[in-house]
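Archive transcription. Copying these from loose printouts into the bound notebook so they stop getting lost. Printout 1 of 2:
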Amino acid sequence: MAAQILDGATLAKQIRAEVAQEVEHLKAEHNITPRLSVILVGDDPASVTYTRMKKKACEAAGMISDLIELPGDSTQQAVKDVIRTLNEDPTVHGILVQHPVPKHLDELDILSTVAVEKDVDGISALSLGRLVLGTADFVACTPLGIVTLLEHYGIEIKGKEAVVVGRSIILGKPAALALLERHATVTVCHSRTQDLPSVVGRADILVAALGKPEFIKGEWIKPGAVVVDAGYNKVEGRDKDVGDVEYETAAQKASWITPVPGGVGPMTIAMLLKQTVKAAKKYGAANV
C-alpha cells in the first residue's frame, strides 16, 4: 500500500495565512510591523532565488523585508559591520544570512554575530547551544518545519527510533536535537557511518538531509516508517528535481512520506515568517 503524503505545501499555506493575521494584529494593536532583513553575499543563483522567495513571502504576509546584497568579495569585517548595524536597529526584528556564504568567509563567525533575539533562522552558536539546553527561542527553520509537519499529521515522535542522515548545522544536527527534545531515540548518520542501509532500516522516522540525489534507496526503508526527505537536488536530464530518497520505491514501504517538491521546502519559509513574527512580539519595538 502506497504511503500517505505529508503535504507541506498545504500546511505552509495555512501557517502563512495565520502569520498574516498575526501581522495585522501587531500593526493594529501595537503599531509593530514585523521586519526581516536578509543578507546575501555574492550572486550564487540558488541563493538569489531563495532570498527573493523569502522577500516575496514576507511581503505577502504584510511584513517588511529588506534584501541586503553584498559583493562576493566582501570582507569578514564588512559583513559583520552590516549585521551589527541591523542588531542595533530596533525596527529590525529578524536577521537572516543566506547560506552558504563565499568560501573565503568564516560562516560560523558571521552567523554568531547576529543578535540571538533576532536570530530567526536559529543557527548561530548561541541559538544552537540553547537548543541543546532546551531553551531556544528560535530553531533552525527546516528542522522546525519538519517537526511541525509531523505533529500536524499526528505522527508520534515520543519513544520512536529516529534516524537523521546528515549532520550539517543548519539541518542534520538541529533536526536531531529537535527530535530528541520530543523524546525520540535519535541516531545521526554521516559519511563514515558503517552499514548505512541497516541503520536506516531501523528507523521509525527517517530524516534525509545529506544533499545527494536519491542516495537513500527505497529497499532500505523499514515497512511502515515515516520518511521525511529534506533534500532538493537538480539532476541533469531529469524533468523535475528530486530528493535524497528514492521516492517511488520508498513510498511503497513507508506509511507516510514527504514529496519533493511540496514537502519540507514550503515549511522552511513558513517557519521563517512565524519566527520573525515571534521575535517582533517578544522583542519588537514600534516602527518609527
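Printout 2 of 2:
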Amino acid sequence: MARSARSDLKVLAFDVFGTVVDWRGGVAAEMTAVAKDLRLTVDAPAFADRWRSKYLPYLNRIRNGEMPWQVLDAVHRASLGELINELSLQSLTEADLDRLVFAWHHLPPWPDAVEGMARMRARYVLTALSNGGMAHLVDVNRAARLPFDCVLSVELIRTYKPDPRVYRLVPDLLAVPPEQSMMVASHAYDLAAAAGQGMRTAFVRRPQEWGTGKPETLDISVDIVAEDFLDLASQLGDLR
C-alpha cells in the first residue's frame, strides 16, 4: 500500500487466539498443572495441539448449519470430551474439564503484544474481532491487560469466521468504510475473508503458535507482513 492510501486508516481489528495471545503455551501450562495434581503423565503441548486441531472442524459445522449455534466455551468443552476419550484420560473430573476450558480465558499475551498494541492505539482504534464469546474475550483482555478500545465477538451474529458477516461487524458497528479498517491476524484464511469484505490486511508471523518455530504459510497477497506487533507498529507509523 502506498503512503497516501494508508493515511486514512482508522481501525485495526485483531484476531485474538494465536495472533495476540499464546493459546498453546497457556493450555499446555494448565494441562501440566492438572496432570501434576492427578499424578498423570501427559505430553501437555501435544495435548494442546490435538485439542486446538479440533477447533476449525467444529466451527465449520456450526457455520454450515450442521450443528446448532454455541459459544466457543461450549465448543471447547465438547471437543475436550472427544479428546479425553481418545487419550483415555477418563480420570479427569468434571471440575478438571472446567478448569481446562477456563484456561482459554487467561491465556498469556505474546511478549510483543501489549507494547505493540499500545503504540498502535495512539493512532488507531483497536478492536478484537474474534471467535471467542463476549464474556470469554473480556476475561482474556483483562487477564492479559490488552489495550483494546472495544470487543467485537462472533456471538453478536451467532456464526464463526470466515463468515463474511463477521468482518462486516467492523464497518457496521465502528462507523468506518471497510477500506479504513485493517484485519490483523497470523492466519491466512482470516485475512483472505477480511479482504473479501474490503478490509486491508496485515499478516503477523507467529512462529511459536504451534511450537514449531515456523509461522503459518502465507499464500495470499496482503498489505503488510510484520514480524511481530512492534514491527507492525513501526510500519504503520512510518507509512502513515
